[in-house]
Model the fold of this input.
Amino acid sequence: MTNAWRAAGLTYIQYSNIAARVLRDALRADLRAEAAKRNETHVKFTPWVNGRPAPRQAESA
Amino acid sequence: MSFVRNARLLAKRGARLSLNRSYSDDMKLTFAAANKTFFDAAVVRQIDVPSFSGSFGILAKHVPTLAVLKPGVVQVTENDGKVTKYFVSSGSVTVNEDSSVQVLAEEAHNIEDIDVSEARQLLSKYQSEMSSAASDKAKAEAAIAVEVAEALVKAAE
Done:
């Protein structure tokens, strides 16, 4: 009984993400569209070299 | 001479400090989620939270506690007796020694904002997803969604 999801290799962060998405999907229709925007997470990585943001090709160098 | 005076001053300050502390019967609640801040250090009477170590109520002077939130209803009773229910997806609850409480959720909404029929549809959708899941991971993911949907239906009915 204790946390089948943890036995399957999931973490609480993943659990939390799923739970939050289900809650957002169960909202009243007028709130759902706004809430659905939070389903996506965007992360942008910028490599820095010598204190400056480096161009992409610097990554392989 | 000056040592005695200093000692007296310190003792006085100490007494005042402990007096002030005993006055803090107030419980300050901060309840926030990624989508909204519901309470910001507001004084309330009681908070009931669902956690993995069981659901529990918090009053002022509660023993310091850390717990992980479970999908379910957080009930806040304000000092005037007004009761409000919120549904939280997940997150953490912290009870501090000074009777301040932080409830931090990934997503939280007033219970009136839940669409019951939508929640029921989600429940049956994820139930069938769970039974047809191919891998252990997919099955576990669907099981989480079922758990949340069940809690939603129960809370919104």
Observations:
- Residues 114-156 of chain B form one domain.
- Strands of chain B lie at 27-33, 37-49, 56-58, 65-69, 72-78, 83-88, 91-95, 100-105, 108-110.
- The interface with chain A takes residues 34-35, 68, 71, 87, 89-91, 106-107, 109, 113-115, 118-119, 122, 126, 136-137, 139-141, 143-145, 147-149, 152, 156 of chain B (CB under 8 Å).
- Chain B has a mean pLDDT of 89.
